[in-house]
Amino acid sequence: MKNCPLFIKKNWIAIVSVLIVIGWAVAGYIYFGKSIADTGSTGKTVVSSGDTIGVDYVGRLEDGTIFDSSLEEFAKQMKNYTPGREFKPLEFTVGAGQMIPGFDAGVVGMKLGEKKTLTIAPKDAYGELQEQEVPAKYLQDIFTETVPRENFKDIVTQTVPMSQLGESGKDLVVGKVIDAGNIKAKVTAIEGDNVTVEIDNTGNPFYGKKLAVGLTGEFEGNSVVIKKLTDKEVTIEVNNKANPFYGKKIEVGMEWKSGENTIKIIAVTKENVTIAAGRHELAGKTLTFDIEIKSIK
Fold first, then answer.
1. Does domain 37-125+285-296 have CATH number 3.10.50.40?
2. Contact 128/285 with Cβ under 8 angstroms?
């Protein structure tokens, strides 16, 4: 869910290879079935940190659903199977942070050609989901909110401790403009550790307009209309199209994904909705990997 604006307070079919060379016979039975495992030029047979290794894998969720594999016969069982993708052992450098922690640590000490099942908890995979309570109305299609009239001024004056400005608080002088992304603030006074700034309130959906009942505006995809005005307060109605669950009845188990981000509803009451958010679609999930070491270099 987007932050509330100022005015609302805020991845070879299996082969069993038998290679026979005159005077030397080697039989290699490989679990995932490519050819005999490759030791590269190092002759190493045990994985240690810093090695570059090749691994065949099948990744599953707790219910057995396959979400990724380096082997096409298993990848075909995925919902997002991509024909034409090159299927080969995954190559990475152990301990270099290229893999999720549980996978990286799980291969250390394994032998060339060894098979193993890794069960990785969320904290060692893509992280835990972070829970947060959200007022239920903010997930409604339309809601009303009463806020101070002052929040709709084109220029908003605020006094804040200099320490709260972080890097932006260094070398401040009166007249300097602080650029914080989509917010620009001009320093008008400095008294001790306190800094007074004038904020160009372009996030105001009624920016540059005289407030009046019925006045409409737009903010990040939401339409806003003034329903009531007093000297001190403004009551607005928000058509909440930015709501990730817009047009749907809010229920436990609902999920919303955008890129690598995911939000899941885990509890619903009349007043609040508890969501669990993660920065990856596999966040909060225990993962199982059937792996085999195919090469060590």
1. yes
2. no
